[in-house]
Write a structure and sequence with these properties.
The structure holds two protein chains of two kinds. By secondary structure, chain A is mainly alpha-helical. Chain A is built from 18 helices and nine strands.
Amino acid sequence: MTEPTAVKRLSLMARLHLRERIRDRDQAIYGILFLGALVFPMATLFITGGSTAYISQAAHAGTWVLLAIGLNVVVGFAGLLDLGYAAFFAIGAYTYALFASSQLGTSPLHHNFHLPFFLMLIIGMLVAASFGALLGFPTLRLRGDYLAIVTLGFGEIVPVLSYNLPQWTGGINAIGGIDQPWLPAWITGPWAGANSVSIIQDATCRNPLAQTQFIPCFSFGFDPVAYYVLIVILIIGAVILVSNLYRSRLGRAWMAIREDETAAAAMGINTVTTKLLAFAIGASFSGFAGAYYGASFDLVSPDDFLFVVSITVLVMVVLGGMGNISGVIVGALVIYFILNTLLPSLASNAESLANSIGLGSLNTQKGDWPGLYGEVQRLQFLLFGLILVMIMLLRPQGLFPSRVREQELKHDAVVEEETVAEQVPSR
Amino acid sequence: MVDFGFYIICGAAVVLLATQAVSNPTAFVQITVFGLADGAMYALVALGYTMVYGIIELINFAHGDVFTLGGYISAAILGFFAINEGSFTAVNLIAIVLVFPVVMLIMGGINITIERVAYRPLRNAPRLAPLITAIGMSFVLEGIMFLWHGPATVHFPDILPHGPQFQTTIGGVFVTFKDGFVMVTAVVLVTLLAIFINRTKLGKAMRATAQDRDAAQLMGININRTIAATFFIGALLAGAGGMIWGLYFNNLFYNLGFRTGLVAFTSAVFGGIGNIPGAAIGGVLIGLIAAYSDSYIGSKWTEVVIFGILIGVLVLRPTGLLGMRVPEK
């Protein structure tokens, strides 16, 4: 900015550094993802002739992307293993579900709250972050793996609590009838399947200031396109926030702690505070995602927050490439696709394949054989496990490892080779 | 200071249990018997976790499923014998005596294969990579069991001596042959393991590798073989544990290993992870705590109690009951 005239003279291409950005792998991934996110709803609406099923799936996948971005702060940046991430997700979702539904009216509190979604998004975030800080405060003094075990225990306790306290959480019956997010108005157009560009305001929503009054608004209802837009905006916000954090003083402190905690402490980094911040910020993203999840799914049940969820998010982060935000997003999308589209569709695909190559007799149930459809459905577990093992064996550093990490790994590999080379002659 | 809190909580728990014991001693002893039998099985699984963690610092998530698979395989092999579920026959005895070592060896072989395929190539990879493959192997094993018998509960032949003549009432406490069998088998196996670890050369190599892998290698220890042996022995115990579980409860299901594995892992941490006697004692204690919590608090709260203890132990006494304070590297 010291020479404004020089900047003006540059072409748009040069000002955005577009060429370098395309050459830079991470920037290119961001670009592709962003374009994909823009084109995706139009493309699916066009191809399927107006069906929003895929958009709804994509909006759901976005929840996982948010979770993966948040866990990446804890695992990838600060190097703390968190095996109970779903607990914070649950806390966010329950915070929203309790304060934006009629659930608390039937609880011992006997008073409903219907707080607006966008306020609850922040509150859910803060509540999850404070739980993260509460859990982290006594445990972050411990060595690495103990934290993993504490979070694992916490992640097991939270769903059991929500099962066992039905007067508050609805227990196994879950909380339903959760308020949908709403905005004063919404713009629709050809991109969402409408004929022309117009402003819609087709519902009445509870006035946030005077809760008994209703005002005209646009309610998200079950409109997948609206949720899709919301989650894409949330993800973009999260990515900007996290990558700025990564480049900040705090981000460098995280990296230092991840590499060598003792050395970092010797350099004057307050390790407890720094780790606590990583933990709380990671948890806050989970709470954020939880509030969105509660709103978009309209149902919050303890079954949605089991250990499997924590593990799935961890797999997304490690598979995508720990510490690299763009890689983690890709990892989340890949795992979501495998778990929710590829594996479930495998059974019916196998059935039709058997029919077309003349092995239709396999499809019928006979004695112990549950039929090809049932058998392939039973295979899902096995296949997912095999996919995990194979990907990790082939790319132990993840699909798109972070640049800094890649350098370290190379360094480690060199040291390793040297030690091996030293040993060979002595044998 | 922190240890002080630990002792206060332990003391409070002991006082609460003591009041129960005084108010109804028979019920208390009865619950203790159940808890000891459960705890013996948890201990067998916990040993595998603690040994593997001690030697390569990996939380081996597949271990709980190795345990369950042991139960499944032993049920299948027992099917080949002309066993009699109604009463105890000589065939039953022969079947049990024969199947025990066979299942243990099969599980040992399977676990060595898992280590060779999924963990060894990643020994120098980032630390989380083998953790993910462990989770993957856990899904694979669960998938195999799911494919084999489906989601339903699998019946395990009830071939241990049971019935009125094999149970007694000692001072109002009901003790069956099964309870005794489980405890005695577990004690025998743990004793054998302790002798192996402390008296044999391979055991010494395992201890050395756990302490410092590079130094052990310099002393001429074959690291790969030692680690494989650790997995083998862990799986021997888990396989035996799976069979004992089947003989005791007479049913299994494909994801039994998940919860049992978590509880066993908690036991290993409770006793001090990496510490072998600690895991055995931790297993028994967690079994007892689970049994007391089932009866005095309510079984739906047991998981909260167990994992609450896990968190409490780690916060107040991170090294576990028997673990030593390790200086940070």
